[in-house]
Amino acid sequence: MPDEHPSPSQRIPVLVVGAGPVGLTAALALRGRGLPVVLLEADPSDRVRPGSRALFVHRESLNLLGGMRPGLDRTLVDNGVIWPTRRTVYRDKEVFARSYPPRPPQPDRPERPERSERSGANPPFTSLRQVETERHLLAACVEAGVDIRWGAAVTEVETSPDGVRVLTGDGTVHEAQYVIGADGARSRVRRSLGIAMRGERSEAFHVVVDVEEDPADPLPLERVFVYEHPALGGRSVMRVPFAGGFQLDLQCKDDDTPEEWADEKRAARWTAAVVGEKYAERLLWVSRYHFLHVVAETFTDARSRVLLVGEASHLFPPFGARGMNSGIADSAAAADAVADALARPEERLRAIGDFGTKRKEAAEFNNEAARTALAHLRPRTRLARLRQAAGAALSPLVPSCGEWLERAPYGPRHGVAGTTKGRY
Ligand SMILES: Cc1cc2nc3c(=O)[nH]c(=O)nc-3n(C[C@H](O)[C@H](O)[C@H](O)COP(=O)(O)OP(=O)(O)OC[C@H]3O[C@@H](n4cnc5c(N)ncnc54)[C@H](O)[C@@H]3O)c2cc1C
């Protein structure tokens, strides 16, 4: 890197790398704290982002986003769907079903509601395609005055005791006091600092298909999990609605090949077997997702200048919707820590250190929860499979068995001890 050192006053206070949902959230959170933000994104401004991916935005995430940018939570709720019914089926037998009364119409909220009016006003979740969530986050960032530099791929990051130097592909050097690295699973920021990911990755995979709904004759608005679907050779499949369609998530077996299940024509065929022939023509996106759960060995650099958030610091399987939601909580915590460190430099090591400790703890919790969920989804022993079959057989008499089959694919719901922002 070129060797000129600007004085601290010439440095940008904070630079965010990556305009995925997590980086956009970090930028909004910083603007919410009155800090100027430069956001570097490798892609061009007219990029097309793929697929539904993280559909499920939890209430905790909505509350955080509404706190950063009043009204953003409401926008996401108004543009998403809230399915009123959850069902679980074992082979061809329903073992659990619960419906909730529709949410009453919400009164118009003022443009800038008081903090007390925001909390508790949000539903338990909203479901919309990640690409839509990102569109609303980006619009909020633009309104909030985030300085977004598109086509700025970070190639190298170097820390010093009083700042960070960031090099982009066009040779520009950016100097910042702090960097929030939100550049996703292959994070260049993380790799540049030599921070390793620890955990497991399996060659086994699941297939995710987005399907456009038929507005003239839609399926019921319900999330359905089917264990050992009879039309899929005993593979399990989940259907999750989003605004305008639904996502199908197929659990493949260890010796399945992508050609058999993730090829578009094959995916159209099994989609038709699960939800009906007319949907074979309505596939929007087909993707393959490997089973992995990994966490960065540390969430900050040794000099406490760089903070890693979202998939730059952890990767989980999607069950339980822990990926994007925990990334949003990471970003809120990172922005708090950076604002604190800038306001009270004498406290900065504590502020950044607390961020690293608490968010790593949350990630380890989520990692363990995802591992538990995966063990249930992919039972390794005959005994584990028998327990599920027995639970299904007993469910008409013992409703808690049906409830167990309903909840277990998503992992434990509560208990991230010591984190600042709820369970993610
Ligand atoms: C099939 C699938 C289903 C999923 N389902 C769910 C779900 O139901 N619920 C859930 O919570 N999560 C889910 N996830 C995970 C979710 O999509 C991710 O958690 C989320 O995208 C992570 O956001 P991020 O901002 O950390 O990273 P990304 O979305 O990967 O964003 C990173 C950004 O950084 C940019 N970038 C990369 N390198 C550089 C660089 N060198 N310089 C500058 N910019 C760079 C990228 O272009 C990108 O814009 C799913 C993922 C997949 C693939």
Topology overview:
Layout: E1 12-17, H1 21-32, E2 38-40, E3 56-58, H2 59-68, H3 72-78, E4 85-90, E5 93-99, H4 115-118, E6 125-127, H5 130-144, E7 147-149, E8 154-160, E9 163-168, E10 173-181, H6 188-192, E11 197-212, E12 222-227, E13 237-242, E14 245-251, H7 258-261, H8 264-275, E15 283-296, E16 306-308, E17 314-315, H9 323-343, H10 348-377, H11 382-394, H12 399-407
Parallel strand pairs: 1-2, 1-10, 2-7, 4-12, 10-16
Antiparallel strand pairs: 3-6, 4-5, 8-9, 9-10, 11-14, 11-15, 12-13, 13-14, 15-17
Helix pairs in contact: 1-5, 1-9, 2-3, 2-9, 9-10, 11-12
Residues 17-23, 40-43, 53-56, 130, 153-154, 182-185, 188, 208, 287, 289, 310-311, 318, 321-325, 327 line the site of flavin-adenine dinucleotide.
Architecture overview:
With 424 residues, the protein is α/β, with parallel strands linked by helices. It has three domains: 8-82 and 104-199 and 293-374, FAD/NAD(P)-binding domain; 202-288, Alpha-Beta Plaits; 379-410, no CATH class. It has twelve helices and 17 strands. The protein has an eight-stranded mixed sheet with strand order 5-4-12-13-14-11-15-17. Helix 1 (21-32) runs parallel beside helix 9 (323-343) and helix 2 crosses helix 3 (72-78). The protein is globular, with a radius of gyration of 22 Å. It starts with 11 loop residues before the first strand and ends in a 17-residue tail after the last helix. Mean pLDDT is 90; it is low at 115-119 and 415-424. The structure holds flavin-adenine dinucleotide. The site of flavin-adenine dinucleotide has 35 residues, from helix 1, strand 15 and helix 9.
